[in-house]
Write a structure and sequence with these properties.
The chain is of the alpha/beta class and 226 residues long. It has seven helices and ten strands.
Length: 226
């Protein structure tokens, strides 16, 4: 069972992406409604457009055809900074921007000029639910394993408290215990706040564990498996 209401928060209307120089199709035209509070799993072989889809939803690219709507309005109707606070993308390759773990978690919040008390509240929450030990907090990127950096990057995205969280292969560097912790955290947030989750993952067991609706982008075709 999913916790979403039947209220599309995102809608793709034959949205597709082609390379402007080579003409190569990066994402075949796709029509898809994503409901508020839904958990959506995207899978398919390499080159089927999974990452390209997430980038379009976050306006790191623009569709070469069709349209994408957020809350009934075209994505381009929103200022990019505002949109990316509401639709947060956690990329597959984690970057801490040369900051310590403590600094990188709150960096987007300081850019928003949130009150210090609110920043502290969110950081404390990340330390608690993310089980970040004291020994990590002053470490920089090169002092952490790939899995540790990926976990911190996921928490940084959650601290934005977005409407929609886009996750690109979030379990690729995590051990099984941390993968399960991520699924448990996402399910809890989805139930508590109706966080809409769109996860790309080649490890189908984690999409199944998230109890998500599945969309297959394989072979340039979309198969909604319900």
């Amino acid at each position: 069972m999913t916790s979403e209401s039947r209220d599309p928060i995102l809608k793709l209307e034959q949205a597709g992406l082609s390379d402007s120089r080579s003409g190569e199709t990066l994402l075949p035209p796709l029509s898809l409604a994503i409901n508020r509070g839904e958990r959506l799993g995207i899978y398919g072989p390499s080159g089927s457009g999974k990452t390209s889809l997430l980038r379009l939803l976050n306006r790191l690219g623009e569709p070469s055809q069709g349209a994408i709507l957020y809350q009934g309005q075209p994505l381009e109707a929103y200022p990019i900074a505002q949109l990316r606070r509401r639709i947060a993308l956690v990329p597959q390759e984690p970057k801490l921007l040369g900051l310590t773990v403590a600094e990188t978690l709150i960096y987007p919040l300081t850019l928003q000029k949130l009150p210090s008390a609110e920043i502290q509240r969110r950081r404390d929450w990340a330390y608690q639910v993310g089980a970040i030990p004291e020994s990590w907090r002053q470490r920089r990127e090169w002092q952490l394993s790939l899995g540790q950096r990926q976990w911190v990057t996921i928490l940084r995205g959650l601290l934005l408290e977005p409407d929609i969280l886009l996750l690109d292969e979030p379990t690729s560097a995590l051990d099984p215990e941390r993968c399960q912790a991520l699924i448990d955290l996402l399910l809890a947030l989805n139930a508590q706040t109706q966080l809409t989750i769109v996860m790309v993952n080649h490890q189908r067991q984690w999409l199944t564990a998230l109890d998500s609706r599945l969309v297959n982008l394989g072979k340039g075709e979309t198969e909604d498996s319900g």
